[in-house]
Amino acid sequence: MEKKKYSSYAEIDRDLEILKLEKDINYQKLVLSFQRTKESITPQNIVNGFVSSYTDYFKNSYPQILQSILPYVIGWFINKKRGS
């Protein structure tokens, strides 16, 4: 980063004020982010997130599950009809 050369104290004060305002803005963003995170970490949200992730997983893998279970179900019905 290039060093800035100042010609007056007014320029220095202006830049310091800008830096202070930027620092305050970033601090408020951090506080807001922390509050939102704290509000989102509730037992209900955690359970909902856990359930929705598994729901998506099973929804996407439903054909694969069906293909692996279907032969056993057909075999069970065939054996039941024969009386075994």
Automatic annotation (TrEMBL):
The lineage of its organism: Bacteria, Pseudomonadati, Bacteroidota, Flavobacteriia, Flavobacteriales. It comes from the Bacteria. InterPro entries: DUF6327. Pfam families: DUF6327 (PF19852). This is DUF6327 family protein.
